[in-house]
Amino acid sequence: MLSNATALLTPGEMARVDAAAAASGLSSFGLMERAGQAVAAAALKAYASALRFAVLCGPGNNGGDGYVAARALRQAGADVVVHVLGDPDRLPADARLAFNLCPIPGQPLADYRPRPGDVVIDALFGAGLSRDVPQAVADIITRVADAACPVLAVDLPSGLCGARGLVLGSAFRAERTVTFMTKKPGHLLMPGRDLCGTIEVFDIGIPRRIVAAEAGQMALNGPAVWGKTMPRLQGETHKYRRGHLAVFSGPAAQTGAARLSATAGLNAGAGLVTVAAPSGALPTLAATLTAVMVRPIDDTEALGQWLQAAKLSAFVIGPGFGVGERARQFVAMLSKRPLVLDADAITSFAACPEDLFALFRTGPARLVLTPHEGEFGRLFPDLSADGRRGKPERSLAAAERSGGVIVCKGADTVIAAPDGRILINDNAPPWLATAGSGDVLAGIVGALLAQGVPAFEAAAAGVWLHGAAAVHGGPGMTAETLVQQVRPFEALSMHAG
């Protein structure tokens, strides 16, 4: 069972959690009261010097949270104004009770005029919004942004889709967001992550068993999900037990990407790493690699002989390899083995993606695809163009279609498995967006596959370790310095201990 800190609930799942909590005998108004009190406490702590709190309350239960917060702020001695969207007489029962208990008269939303010293508490829509915000709300969002008032959002900044993280017409940019029980996908997916600011998750008292019963297979990526599958060094461990990773390189002038992948694989814990390359590239590789071995592989015949003779555990193909038939032939020969497919190898199947998918649809997942958005669109053009689906849904559909684990890269990298599991990563710093960083990621994932980690866990852990290495690298990092920060998970765990 995932913890509330790891689980992610979509707005629909959270609604079912609320309903199940009420059905179990918990007071739904009591939950609203705790939520609103948590918002007020967060506001007083973060904005102790605020001259006035302007609480903007919407037509649903998010507005109810706002009315509770307004009452608690007034009881704490703060100056508070309340502005209302919609007819309070049409509020749901709990929100209506919160409105009745609030001692501050509600004024129309359109009448709000920000003034210096205001802190805006956005309790208009929360995570459940599924359509563009009304023009009256868009006008208030613009007014608040122009006045540069800090915004504390209740559950999610109004105007964001809680499931997809997309802006629905217009959205507040919050300095802080207070949500309840678990984060939602919209807190992590771009551009939602940028608009949420600092996120605080409050436990308002819904039992964990209820949350777990309604949660799907989406979670926050981190060691809680895959830590138990990570390789552990034992007294009898030797290099072959730690796996032999093979990374394929392109010609002499295009070896840099493969060298990054191979070095990352070695640093991530693979016992042996070999770069397989055209004969003409061997002098360049031999002059620039030390602990990484090199092997001449010019054609499918040489590859077939190597596969028969050597004990090879996993493969990385794509970084700097070149686009074309040779890549497709090599992938077909490797299709029964654990394989990371990246960059040029992905593009090589752009005109014939079904040829790739047919190789991996049967048997346990052994393919990890690591596309950025452009590469994703080459293999899955229909999914890429589907604006109705968020990144997790597109990634999952791609995993089901391809039979492989999809790592859809970006600031909000999503990892999806054919069996329905989805993770969203959040530990990657912005400076990770640099040339060559994807080659490093491919090598880390390949090293974990080589050590026997299942494909989904290898992909997820690789993404997280990649982000951790970038954090250690710091701003100004390049791929060459990033790869030196790569460490096995066990080494990071020992350091943390």
Describe the structure concisely for a colleague.
The chain is of the alpha/beta class and 497 residues long.
Could you explain how this protein is built, in words?
- It catalyses: (6R)-NADHX = (6S)-NADHX; (6S)-NADPHX + ADP = AMP + phosphate + NADPH + H(+); (6S)-NADHX + ADP = AMP + phosphate + NADH + H(+); (6R)-NADPHX = (6S)-NADPHX.
- Belongs to the NnrE/AIBP family.
- The chain is α/β, with parallel strands linked by helices.
- It has two domains: 11-216, 3-Layer(aba) Sandwich (Rossmann fold); 223-496, Ribokinase (UDP-N-acetylmuramoyl-L-alanine:D-glutamate ligase), CATH 3.40.1190.
- It has helices spanning 11-23, 28-46, 61-75, 93-101, 135-147, 185-188, 192-196, 208-214, 223-226, 256-267, 282-288, 300-309, 325-333, 343-347, 353-360, 373-379, 381-384, 391-402, 437-450, 455-473, 479-482, 489-496; strands spanning 52-57, 80-84, 106-108, 118-123, 151-154, 176-180, 198-202, 218-220, 244-248, 272-277, 293-296, 314-317, 339-341, 367-369, 405-408, 414-416, 422-424.
- Strand 12 (314-317), helix 13 (325-333) and strand 13 form a beta-alpha-beta unit.
- The radius of gyration is 26 Å and the shape is elongated.
- It starts with 10 loop residues before the first helix and ends with a helix.
